[in-house]
């Protein structure tokens, strides 16, 4: 204990440097956890959190017994799982491809094009999606030009997941590739030159040099992505919803918004959000343990 205090006194500048971030973390992440109590109460804003009567697990029982429970859970898990399966490899592939471009000017232009969608508002992205996929939009014009029938993409439940995942990949994959490009930039040129001398083609260089160099980052990113599998972005899902595609577009975050803010049932919506958070924690711990066993003890 005395050794730790001595170290802290000697390096107090480092602790002062991290103090503002620590305060922000506590204020915006840990203090609001107090509000989770209303999940176990029949919350009344006039009575306040402590004045509202305790009801125990009734909000959770109510949610799990509702006819929409399984549909909401399936929609959330399917959308997240498919997004992880199809979206996770794309930044890695982009990084490997960009890393192999030798001309700096071309490389910078490609990176600019790939990174730009990340800075577009979700509202604007959804507007672009509606314009492109409308019955008179470019996509349907192309389909009818080829002799097909116009498709109502935004009202068909079967198309919602594909639209959500593809638009998500387009918007965020380029930006997500930065972390892999940073790792690839540290690959020793001597290894690449040695591989070329040994007759290794580009695919073999990627397999035996590039991929092993970014493997630790891939593992961490996968664990974090899998642990957040229930934490879908509310904004895009809500904005892409129409009255016709609700069978697949209604997920837990949008349901919480409608129950909590539109209907004013704060205790019930908090219980659903808390249920969602607990599932996320369980998934994060489980995936981390599985990855550790498969990856020689390396994980988070």
Structural overview:
The structure is a single chain. The chain has helices at 2-10, 12-30, 48-51, 58-65, 69-87, 89-99, 104-115, 122-133, 138-145, 157-176, 178-184, 189-197, 202-227, 234-240, 246-249, 252-262, 266-294. It is mainly alpha-helical. The mean pLDDT is 87. α6 (89-99) packs parallel to α10, α11 (178-184) crosses α13 (202-227) and α13 runs antiparallel to α17. The longest helix has 29 residues, at 266-294.
Question: What order do the helices and strands come in, and which of them pair?
Answer:
Blueprint: H1 2-10, H2 12-30, H3 48-51, H4 58-65, H5 69-87, H6 89-99, H7 104-115, H8 122-133, H9 138-145, H10 157-176, H11 178-184, H12 189-197, H13 202-227, H14 234-240, H15 246-249, H16 252-262, H17 266-294
Helix pairs in contact: 4-17, 5-10, 6-10, 6-11, 7-10, 8-14, 11-13, 13-17, 16-17
Number of helices: 17
Oligomer: single chain
Content of β-strand: under 5%
Morphology = globular
Q: What value does the average pLDDT take?
A: 87
Order of helices and strands: HHHHHHHHHHHHHHHHH
Radius of gyration: 24 Å
- The separation of the N and C termini measures 27 Å
Task: Count every beta strand, where a strand is a DSSP E run of 2 or more residues.
Answer: 0
Biggest sheet character: none
- Main structural class: mainly alpha
For this entry, give a set of tags.
300 residues, mainly alpha
Would you summarize the structure shown here?
This protein has helices at 2-10, 12-30, 48-51, 58-65, 69-87, 89-99, 104-115, 122-133, 138-145, 157-176, 178-184, 189-197, 202-227, 234-240, 246-249, 252-262, 266-294.
């Amino acid at each position: 204990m005395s050794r730790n205090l001595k170290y802290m006194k000697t390096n107090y500048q480092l602790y002062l440097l991290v103090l503002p971030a620590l305060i922000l973390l506590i204020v915006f992440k840990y203090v609001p956890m107090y509000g989770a109590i209303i999940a176990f109460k029949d919350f009344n804003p006039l009575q306040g959190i402590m004045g509202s009567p305790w009801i125990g697990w009734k909000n959770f029982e109510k949610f799990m017994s509702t006819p929409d429970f399984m549909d909401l859970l399936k929609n959330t898990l399917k959308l997240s799982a498919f997004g992880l399966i199809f979206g996770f490899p794309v930044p890695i592939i982009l990084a490997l491809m960009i890393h192999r471009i030798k001309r700096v000017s071309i490389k910078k232009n490609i990176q600019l094009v790939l990174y730009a969608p990340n800075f577009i508002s979700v509202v604007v992205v959804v507007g672009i999606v509606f314009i492109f996929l409308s019955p008179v939009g470019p996509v349907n014009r192309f389909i009818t030009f080829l002799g097909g029938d116009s498709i109502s993409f935004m009202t068909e439940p079967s198309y919602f997941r594909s639209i959500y995942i593809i638009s998500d990949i387009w918007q965020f994959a380029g930006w997500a590739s930065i972390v892999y490009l940073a790792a690839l930039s540290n690959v020793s040129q001597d290894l690449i030159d040695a591989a070329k001398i040994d007759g290794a083609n580009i695919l073999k260089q990627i397999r035996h040099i590039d991929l092993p160099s970014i493997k630790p980052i891939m593992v961490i990113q996968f664990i974090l992505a899998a642990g957040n599998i229930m934490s879908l972005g509310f904004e895009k899902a809500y904005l892409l919803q129409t009255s016709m595609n609700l069978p697949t577009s209604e997920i837990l975050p949008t349901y919480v918004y409608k129950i909590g803010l539109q209907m004013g049932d704060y205790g019930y919506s908090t219980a659903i959000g808390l249920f969602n958070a607990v599932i996320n924690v369980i998934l994060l711990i489980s995936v981390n343990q599985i990855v550790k066993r498969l990856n020689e003890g390396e994980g988070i």
